[in-house]
Amino acid sequence: MNNPEIEPGLQPAQTLRVQEVGVYRGPHLYSRTKMVRIQLDLGRVEQYPTNLLPGFVDALLKHVPGLREHGCSYGEPGGLVLRMEEGTWLGHVAEHVAIELQNMAGADVARGKTRSVTNMPGVYNVMFEYENEDVGLLAGRFALELVNLLLPIELQGLAGADMIAPSPLALFAMPEALRVLRAMHSEMAFGPTTASIVREAEARSIPWRRLDNSSLVQLGYGKHIKRIRASCSSLTSEIAAEIASDKELTNRLLIEAGLPAPLGTVVSSAEEAVEAARTVGLPVVIKPVDGNHGRGVNIGLSTQSEVEWGFEQARAHSSLVLVEQQFVGGDHRILVIGGKLVAAAKRVPAQVVGDGRATIAQLIDRKNEDPRRGNGHESALTRISIDECLIHYIARSGYTLASVPEWGKPVMLLPTANLSTGGTAIDCTEDIHPDNALIACRAARILGLDIAGIDFVAPDIRKSVLETGGGIIEVNAGPGFRMHLYPSQGKRRNVAAPVLDLLYPPGAPCRVPVLAVTGTNGKTTTTRMLAHILAANGQIVGMTSSNGVYIDGRRIMEGDCTGPRSARVVLGEPTIDVAVLETARGGLLREGLAFDACDIGCVTNVTADHLGLRGVHTVEDLAAVKSVVVEAVHENGWSILNADDSLVAAMREEAGCHICYFSTKAPTQWPDFLKDHVLHGGRALGCDLASGPFDMILYDQAKKMLICRADEIPATMNGMAAFNVENALAASAMAVCKNVPLPVIREALRSFGTSYEQSAGRLNMVEREGVRIIVDYAHNPGGLRALGGLVRKLRTGNSSCIGVVGIGGDRRDQDIFEMGEIAASLFDRLILKEDYDLRRRSAGEVAAILRQGALKAGFDASKIEVVLREHEAVERALGSALNDDLIVVTADDIARVWARVSAPPANELDPLPYKGAIPLQSEIRVF
């Protein structure tokens, strides 16, 4: 490729431009991995792959040296560098930079993809994995800013970056960008305890979702939901946690139970502390009554002044202070989960070892250079802070921060051994004496804690404290796992595993079955039929649909609830036995799925709808989006596929699970793959709509079983509504694969009709003063075509059929045109209307294209009226219909239309301004 001349003065709008940003939170079109997606227009930079940008690769590697390790398509370190030397485009480069920036900030991410956008030259979807989406988004912005900064000055220019994330930098600089990213990651990353439980949940395929920016995590779905906050769980008793936070009460209960615990007294003044110390015997330990992490705790206080100082230190953290006797021995943490000891570690207070040259302050700085040490609890070890407590403690040994300890001399820096104050831990799980283990386990049970950290002092943990002295000095609710996960010495312990064993014992379910329905048409009715069947089987169903979220048959949310946000509402509902989720393309393209895997996935059909939006330009593109649902079915689940739809049937190649087909053709007309499937014992449902009888037959393991006669299902209108026969087959297939007994399926289908209450907006019929009216969503050509089959069968004698027809403005012009053509073939009169939300079109634009389609199909122009407002179009139809006429309304505001056609009088409608009809001579678009 020749290097074209770079034109000077190139404007930013002609170079890099961010067009769209999304965050995939579940399985999606491109991957099962959570990813940030940035749609990037390279503009003129499309002409400059990396091999045509002198010095770019070297400069990039200088700023981000970790890119040398990226394997890219070569699968080994150096692969990305080779790709850049050969020539690759900047979207691909930005993907890798965003990944590496997150890793440099402390995250662990690796996956990414960059794909060109169909029909949009130079535009790419740049996608990369994230741990925290805010960190991922900011890393994406910084990646583009860095790439832009390294371009030749003539090509620099980045527009739309604020769409990704607000920049905290006035001017991009790599060191400052890294500092911001690291700080954000540190603030938002899970601590070691929560992270270990989440990783263990992932290993067990237990779904989880973070509920806040801290450590509150939901595990499981539906009635199997559990929650954790660090190591506090849904099973943690609030009373037990309160007892553990009261150290004096804890000691008293333990002593009453015959367990070794120190005697102590609660005081509220320095004078009382001195008197208490004399009573229990010096030296003493002074601590806050309700403190944690060793804050305000001091040991070995043996003089009046030390006791008074220790009281002031403790009172800074609590209004009440505990003065207790001091046990002699090493400080240990014993972790008890579910009444069983799972780990033990000896804790060593923060210390430094002299070298004869460095001061104590310098030795502390060296200690803090250990990469395992960080601030707070996110790292394996915590940095040692120099504070008043440390200065006072080393002074008791005759040191100051300026002291230079002799070579090999250990200097203890703090009285307590907490990891949060810089201590270290040595695993001793296998060394603990059985008596000590029993004492710790009894303590947890006496307080009622499901997860407890027992602070245990013993001269030798291998010997019983009943013989050597020592015992329990504290019991902690919600103990940290760091010392057991990352001990400084000894074996790492997977202490998250017993937590999950406690929450979900072996064999216990962690999720309710998830049944997902997608497709172009029929998914709402299929979803409702399936929920009806499952409810008849005695299950509490959570359902999302195009008109709301339902829990146990009651609507709790209104509106189009077919996206991931509504699905998460259902999956987070603790009362449900099963989730039935209508899953539309919009949410799939925007966020991906709300779940990691489903038990049963169904695709009803794929026809042209919403094409030209979000990179979906063909029905093949749309099929790829819909197939995400069946690709997410787990390995023991079922994919339900329409064998009559070639695009849907082809999904069998990607659906990694059991397959069940449904078909409305006679077995002799089945495609070969379906014949072979059934011949070899595969599962399928069929109903011959062409020649009858209308028996819905289940084929399974070489057996044929009658499910129901299609004409016995009210929703099929004696079998005339072929599309609802198809929907009944899909719903029945899902119910069969959910192991619902056939008699239950049969009786449930026989009670499923088309009433507004049972299936709002789907083939709702009413008769009014001799006029029959159908209200149906029929929101695309495929839906209207399917409805038309029934309309033709319902026509009687010389009566007229009036179509009140509209379509969403977000459809392509050719789809709107086709809708008009289909309407012309079905109706005697047309009243063309528009949705209330015009979807960025001007008023009258959609109706004009509908009219053009009808005219092109040969419809009489004198029988076309255009009334823009839907409620006014309905009024016009009602006012002009004669006895025995049939009115069909493809409704947008279904509730309002149904209220009007089913409950007169008209003057009860809320008046809206009437825009009038569009004149017949209005400008009409020509394709």
UniProtKB/TrEMBL annotation:
Residues 251-504 form the ATP-grasp domain. GO terms for molecular function: cyanophycin synthetase activity (L-arginine-adding); cyanophycin synthetase activity (L-aspartate-adding). SUPFAM superfamilies: Glutathione synthetase ATP-binding domain-like, MurD-like peptide ligases, catalytic domain, MurD-like peptide ligases, peptide-binding domain. It comes from the Bacteria. It catalyses: [L-4-(L-arginin-2-N-yl)aspartate](n)-L-aspartate + L-arginine + ATP = [L-4-(L-arginin-2-N-yl)aspartate](n+1) + ADP + phosphate + H(+); [L-4-(L-arginin-2-N-yl)aspartate](n) + L-aspartate + ATP = [L-4-(L-arginin-2-N-yl)aspartate](n)-L-aspartate + ADP + phosphate + H(+). In the C-terminal section; belongs to the MurCDEF family. Homodimer. PANTHER family: CYANOPHYCIN SYNTHETASE, MUR LIGASE FAMILY MEMBER. This is Cyanophycin synthetase. The lineage of its organism: Bacteria, Pseudomonadati, Pseudomonadota, Alphaproteobacteria, Hyphomicrobiales.
